[in-house]
Write a structure and sequence with these properties.
The complex is a heterodimer of chains A (608) and B (169). With 608 residues, chain A is of the alpha+beta class. The longest helix of chain A is centred in the C-terminal third of the chain and has 21 residues, at 520-540. The model of chain A has no long low-confidence stretch (mean pLDDT 97). Chain B is built from five helices and eight strands, in the order E-H-E-E-H-E-E-H-E-E-H-E-H. Chain B is globular. Chain B has helices at residues 26-35, 68-72, 100-104, 133-137, 148-168; strands at residues 13-16, 47-51, 55-59, 79-81, 88-90, 111-113, 118-120, 143-146. The chains are: A alpha+beta (608), B alpha+beta (169). The interface between A and B is medium-sized, with 38 and 25 residues. The complex binds iron/sulfur cluster. Iron/sulfur cluster binds next to helix 1 of chain B.
Chain lengths: 608, 169
């Protein structure tokens, strides 16, 4: 087989047993790889209705289809599990070298079931699998864990995906970290690993991922790489995604003080350009990536938090910075580093802290042992991160995420818990971006910018971003399917601007890599199929219509700042768009997948 | 960057600027594409060392003045110094893949082709019209074909620039 290996590894941690499962060509074509393959394998292996932190939950790692080849920016792998944060589909993507290495070890995917008796790490050594004792590293951070395992196994080329204390302590938004700086970040897959006593997965891959027509693939890669040095990726290269700060601030959609405001007075200070100028240490790329977006920032001597060094991107900056009304850059860098080390999703961490800050501000929360969180208090924000990871003091409440924390606290604090289906918002205010608002509301993994991609038509001016109207349903669907297709072939979304006809070009690459005929229609349908499968997963786990909504603040408070100031976003507007979206998808008025849609997409075999 | 062993002043080799290298490994993929029909990355003659978070650099044969690989090779004539660029030619009929050269190369630039059981070393893509594939593909222009004199001058220039910048701030 070319491109694919045609094999999945099925691991049972309780029995310490690993077997290979052959993956049929039809399955691979239908679900592509990455997120698509991960979700399908999860769907087939998971017993519906189990608690996300029960040993019977299943977690799947799946390589992007182009992983292990030269194809530009093709380093992504997907992790799929039932999310402990949302109770729905939890599919997360990560970059760097893990995906390439796993594929070269001979697997398109790894399916992990059961719970190990003692802390364990899995070592996939090409075709051999070892269950190794991890008691010595239980409690350690992600950086040290990686180092330890490489040293213990005596091979620098081994790639490691691991959890930190947050995952061990079942923080509901714990991430999985690999290659030091990359994370399968959102929806809490790290807690699922923790619940399984699984500290890490280490992989040595020394095999070949063969390519059917390597000369053609090389040629296309060269062309994409050239485009990737142009305007389509400009902001990712310099100053990195942090360049969003000034743009979003100008548009009045830059969430500040837990989405109370949408402009930040100190935006110039924390702009991507300014941070780059004063703190940039190194630019790093994932495997086979011509863009190199990972900007490592470092706090130099003579400043507080001296020595903090971490990759800082826009979402992290927004969540730990302005969302908490913080403009202290060294503290933000330190906080980001702590999140990475303890294995916390930075977005959920920051937005949950911001929720707590607002609860303190409104006197709904009181100081515990003299500790409190106030907007703008950078040192308290830094201090609470290890408390969350260790579930100490106030950290125990925040470790549950904003939705559960608000439920526990009561007192209408859910009014300002900024999440969708339990997943905290990323750094764009949906009130001033209404296609995006729709994408957040209907998103299968919760309110996620990255899965919906619906911010694009709003920000690029394809539509009037302050208007809610019919037609946005089809648009949100189109964007969602683009995202899921990229997540499945494993190509980074940052490359998408380099395609002039994405489906066509990806289909050609598919054919050249695998040797199997593929065309844009089939590829597009695969994307739509995978989007629908995620929805079927949610329905099987108890999704109901009322989950496709946004927090009350979004509807009760008009746009607070910027060019759209005072424009309201009544709930009815969202409802119109949600109905429009269901219709575009071919679903019922209450958002259920219909039989004709299942038939059309070849999903009739999926057990409900 | 100073080399731990003296390089031949006449050597022409693929030099990597660690300031520019982002550790993407595209150079390895490109080399593999040119050298192997399946683009097996293990066949790449250039290797990227990634020391996260901040040190990335790729290395290929640099043309030592008195190459250890040639010195230790027990098969007379298997490794010879190329007259044009001072890199190492491998005679596949004589080499038996014993790997002594791999052990002694200070740059880790001698590799074993696990299919042919012969060692492989960078030859600057001598047979290729567009020159070295790694240099061609590197998205950050971190690679160039250079001599030790060129890279030393460049390193000095960078050091002077850094000093001037520091004095000005
Ligand atoms: S292609 Fe260039 S930037 Fe990428 S690893 Fe090789 S030398 Fe470094």
């Amino acid at each position: 087989m070319n491109g694919y290996t045609g094999k999945a590894l099925i691991v049972d941690l309780a029995d310490r047993n690993a077997i290979e499962q052959a993956l049929a060509e039809s399955l691979l074509r239908d679900y592509l790889g990455g997120a698509g393959l991960a979700v399908r394998l999860l769907y087939d292996h998971l017993t519906p209705g189990v608690d996300a932190l029960d040993p019977d939950n299943v977690i799947v790692f799946s390589c992007g289809l182009f992983a292990g080849t030269i194809v530009s920016a093709s380093a992504k792998h997907a992790v799929a599990t039932k999310s402990p944060l949302t109770g729905m589909i939890g599919d997360a993507m990560a970059g760097s070298f893990f995906s390439h290495t796993l594929k070269r070890a001979g697997y398109d995917a790894v399916v992990i079931k059961g719970k190990a008796e003692v802390p364990t790490y899995l070592f996939i050594d090409d075709s051999d699998v070892f269950f190794r004792n991890a008691e010595a590293i239980w409690g350690q951070g992600c950086f040290d864990t990686e180092e330890f395992i490489r040293e213990e196994l005596g091979d620098e080329a081994i790639r490691v995906s691991s959890i930190g204390p947050a995952g061990e302590n079942l923080v509901r938004y714990a991430c999985i970290s690999n290659d030091r700086g990359r994370q399968a970040g959102r929806t809490g897959p790290g807690a699922v690993m923790g619940s399984k006593n699984l500290k890490a997965i280490a992989v040595r891959g020394s095999g070949v991922v063969s390519v059917d027509n390597s000369a053609a693939v090389y040629q296309v890669t060269r062309e994409l790489n050239t485009l990737a040095q142009g305007p389509a990726t400009g902001k990712y290269r310099h100053p990195g995604t942090n360049g969003n700060v000034l743009v979003l601030n100008r548009l009045g959609v830059f969430p500040t003080r837990n989405f109370q405001r949408t402009e930040f007075a100190k935006a110039d200070h924390i702009s991507g350009e300014n941070i780059y100028r004063h703190y940039h240490d190194k630019t790093v790329a994932c495997a086979a990536c011509p863009i190199a977006c990972e900007q490592i920032m470092r706090v130099a001597g003579a400043e507080p938090h001296e020595g903090a060094r971490v990759s800082l991107d826009y979402e992290t900056l927004f969540a730990l910075g302005p969302c908490c009304d913080i403009d202290d850059i060294p503290a933000i860098i330190r906080a980001a580093e702590l999140c990475d080390e303890f294995g916390l999703d930075t977005i959920s961490t920051g937005v949950t802290i911001a929720w707590a800050m607002e609860a303190f501000e409104k006197r709904l929360l009181n100081a515990q042992d003299g500790f409190e969180l106030r907007f703008g208090d950078a040192e308290a924000m830094v201090a609470v991160i290890p408390m969350i990871a260790q579930r100490e003091g106030l950290g125990a409440l925040l470790a549950e995420g904003s939705r559960r924390a608000a439920e526990t606290l009561g007192k209408d604090s859910d009014y300002f818990a900024m999440h969708g289906k339990g997943l905290e918002f990323a750094g764009y205010d949906p009130r001033g971006m209404k296609t995006y608002a729709l994408g957040l509301a209907v998103g299968t993994r919760g309110a996620c910018h990255n899965r919906s991609l619906a911010y694009e038509p709003d920000l690029q001016g394809q539509v009037d971003r302050h208007l809610a109207e019919k037609g946005r349903g089809a648009l949100a669907m189109k964007q969602e399917d683009i995202a899921v297709t990229l997540d499945s072939v494993g190509v980074c979304k940052f490359l998408r601007g380099c395609f002039s006809d994405m489906y066509e070009e990806l289909a050609q690459l598919y054919t050249n890599v695998t040797g199997w005929d593929m065309n844009s229609t089939e590829l597009r349908r695969a994307g739509e199929r995978i989007s629908n499968l995620k929805k079927l997963f949610n329905i099987r786990e108890g999704w109901t219509r009322d989950l496709d909504r946004l927090p009350p603040r979004i509807h009760e408070e008009s746009v607070p700042d910027g060019p759209g100031k005072n424009i309201p976003f009544p709930r009815e507007e969202l409802e119109i768009m949600v109905a429009d979206y269901y219709e575009a998808r071919g679903w019922t008025a209450d958002g259920r997948v219909t039989q004709p849609t299942l038939d059309r997409l070849g999903l009739a075999d999926v057990p409900s | 960057m100073t080399a731990p062993v003296p390089l031949s002043p006449e050597a022409r080799f693929v030099a990597c600027d660690p300031e520019l290298c982002v550790g993407c490994q595209l150079c390895e993929f490109a080399c593999a594409t040119v050298k192997d029909p399946h683009a097996n990355i293990l066949k790449s003659r250039i290797r990227v060392a990634r020391h996260e978070p901040s040190l990335m650099v790729s290395v290929a044969c640099r043309g030592c003045d008195d190459p250890a690989c040639v010195r230790v090779c027990p098969q007379e004539g298997a490794l010879t110094i190329n007259v044009d660029n001072r890199l190492i030619d491998v005679d596949n009929d004589i080499c038996d893949g014993c790997g002594w050269c791999i052990n002694v190369c200070p740059f880790g630039a001698v590799l074993l082709d696990t299919d042919t059981k012969r060692v492989v070393i960078c030859d600057l893509c001598a047979q290729r019209d567009n020159g070295a594939a790694c240099v061609e593909i590197c998205p950050k222009d971190a690679l160039e074909i250079a001599s030790i004199e060129i890279i030393t001058n460049k390193a000095n220039g960078t050091a002077v620039q850094a000093l001037v910048k520091e004095l000005n701030t």
